[in-house]
Design goal:
- It is a single chain.
- The protein has 264 residues and is α/β, with parallel strands linked by helices.
- It has two domains: 180 residues, Rossmann fold, CATH 3.40.50.150; 67 residues, Orthogonal Bundle (Helicase, Ruva Protein, domain 3), CATH 1.10.8.
- The longest helix is centred in the C-terminal third of the chain and has 12 residues.
- The termini are far apart.
- The structure holds S-adenosylmethionine.
- The site of S-adenosylmethionine (SAM) has 23 residues, from β1, α2 and β3.
Length: 264
């Protein structure tokens, strides 16, 4: 039977989860109501898809591997599953559901985890999301100011959402096993986002640029990014309530938001 399965392509980050208890726990972490539409990233051989179908009104799964697409379409006859062939990064997620509200799930390909997490921040966003990712990436997403793992990914996600690590998954739960440990990450939109929709793009650019200079003091960071003088940089930082000698890695999400506003 296993011989009929399309073979795993490492190039596409294909590590298939086989432990049914872990798969059920991932689907449970999404707390589906039974009627919601789920967008699934990278369904692979449909292991998680099956658990999602049991809990959702409809599943739209986007898979890049064209050999897996016909396999998936045949695997769940009569179930409310649509399999879309393509690169998830090239499609606005909301377009996959035809504009319907959605929740997001994915045992994502690890070679593009960070781009996927950023892609999912583009509105209209999921009502909530559950991802299986490298443990190290999950720790970066939830890291707080001052922590070693804190960076642009932490700030950008936390400005819009509350992320939390639900549980860890050992490499041995996959076939073939990846080289790293994994963790299940849940991301819920913040009721009080730190930035307004029209500020999202400049905020993202500012945060990326600041962490590109993470060892520099904020006076230097603002001078460089804003192409301005030290005096003007000090004024901007004072307006944002930020110490000119602090470093980007110590700034909280709310301080980055205040800085983005002061720089405008
Ligand atoms: N969900 C399955 C499971 O739990 O066993 C498979 C997970 S596997 C880690 C990641 C899946 O994402 C693979 O099936 C791979 O082909 C697919 N994939 C890789 N790159 C992709 C992309 N850019 N867009 C959509 N799917 C992609």
């Amino acid at each position: 039977m296993r011989d009929d399965l399309p073979r795993a392509r490492k190039r596409l980050g294909q590590h298939f989860l086989t432990d049914p208890r872990i798969l059920a726990r991932i689907a449970d972490a999404l707390e589906l109501t039974g009627t919601e539409t789920v967008v699934e990233i990278g369904p692979g051989r449909g292991a998680l898809t099956e658990h999602l179908l049991d809990r959702a009104g409809r599943v739209v799964a986007v898979e890049l591997d064209r050999d897996l697409v016909p396999y998936l379409r045949e695997k769940f006859p009569g179930r409310p599953l649509e399999v879309v062939e393509g690169d998830v990064l090239e499609r606005p997620l909301a377009a996959l559901t035809g504009g319907e509200e959605f929740v997001l799930a994915g045992n994502v390909p690890y070679y593009i985890t960070t781009p996927i997490l950023f892609h999912a921040l583009v509105p209209p966003r999921a009502r909530r999301a559950v991802y299986l990712v490298q443990r190290e990436v999950a720790e970066r997403v939830v890291a707080v100011a001052g922590a070693e793992e804190y960076g642009a990914l932490s700030v950008n996600v936390q400005a819009l959402a509350n992320p939390r690590i639900m549980f860890r998954v050992p490499a041995g739960a996959f076939s073939p096993p990846p080289k790293v440990e994994s963790a299940v990450l849940r991301v819920d939109p913040r009721p009080d986002p730190a930035i307004a929709p029209e500020e999202e793009r400049p905020f993202r650019e500012l945060v990326q640029a600041a962490f590109g200079l993470r060892r520099k003091q904020m006076r230097r960071v603002v001078r460089t990014i804003g192409d301005t003088t030290a005096e003007r940089a000090d004024e901007i930082l004072a307006a944002a309530g930020i110490d000119a000698e602090a470093r980007p890695e110590t700034l909280t999400v709310e301080q980055f938001a205040a800085l983005a506003r002061a720089m405008r």
